[in-house]
Amino acid sequence: MDRRHFIVGAVGLAAALPFAANAQSKLKIATIGAGREGGALGTRFAKEGFPVMFSSRNPDSLKDLVTAAGPTAKAGTVADAVAFGDVILIVVPYTAMEQLAKDYGKILATKQLVIDVSNPIARRDGEEFVKKINDEGGVGLAAEKMFPGVPLVRGFNAIGSGGLEKNAHRTGEPLGVPITSDDPKAVAVATKLIKDIGFEAVLVGGMAKGKYLVPGTPLGGEHTPEEIRKIAATLS
Q1: Which helix (H) or strand (E) covers residue 31, if one does?
Q2: Which of 96, 135, 152 is CA-nearest to residue 119?
Q3: What is the DSSP letter of 72?
Q4: Is residue 218, in this structure, part of any structural domain at all?
Q5: Quick check: is 17 in a domain?
Q6: CATH number of the structural domain spanning residue 193
């Protein structure tokens, strides 16, 4: 190869490398739970080019979801998903959280981020169970107690599945996603990922404030980042 062709080839390779590196650097996202919210969240990441694994006790039932999410998505068991993901989204009935922590807590502690998207709901989980969670300081502190050492963030708890696709990368001010955490590194990862899929994360406090990221609370529903900050300032 003569010198001119070598230089041209080298310049072309150098220009291509950032794109190749970027494709390889996408964090792998796994969902524990693939119902409406877990399916919508995982699909949002897949549409942005992230490798995604949806999980279920019956992965074969997720074929349509995987097809709709696109070529970067696949399905597996919960154990498969936990092994696969750099980032784990927990989207299950809250009564399942404690067993998940017992089964996978140690490996979840090695991940870059675990997002607790789950909420205790009285009509599904039982009023006594929800009362117990609230008596222990609320859902955020309960999750932190169940998952010690895990890089935990609560987020996406108060936005319905329908709002995820509708509001992603919307024109004008982005939709805000209130988050709570006591782990600064996990917050940094979550903030970037939330931006990548078309929203803006707003840290409203530590996990003690996680009880406010539930439908029916002041931070429930859809708000701009500035509205979230104003609401959060009124919460004790």
Answers
A1: strand 29-32
A2: 96
A3: T
A4: yes
A5: no
A6: 3.40.50.720
Would you give the DSSP letter of residue 48? T
- Residue 141 is encoded by which pair of tokens? 């502190």
Q: Are 94 and 147 in contact (CB under 8 A)?
A: no
How does pLDDT run across 63-108, given as a tens digit for each residue?
999 999 999 999 999 999 999 999 999 999 999 999 999 999 999 9
For residue 201, the surrounding DSSP H or E stretch is: strand 200-205
Mean pLDDT of the chain: 90
Domain that holds residue 41: 28-232
Provide the number of structural domains found in the chain.
1
pTM of full prediction above 0.70: yes
Q: Whose structure tokens read 């696109």?
A: 70
Inside any domain, residue 23: no
Identify whether 22 is part of a domain: no
- C-alpha angle 86/166/53, rounded to 5°? 25
The rounded distance, in Å, linking the Cα atoms of 37 and 115 is 13
91 near 29, Cβ under 8 Å?
no
State the distance between the two ends of the chain, measured CA to CA, in whole angstroms.
70
Q: 73 and 52 in contact (C-beta within 8 Å)? A: yes
DSSP state of 234: T
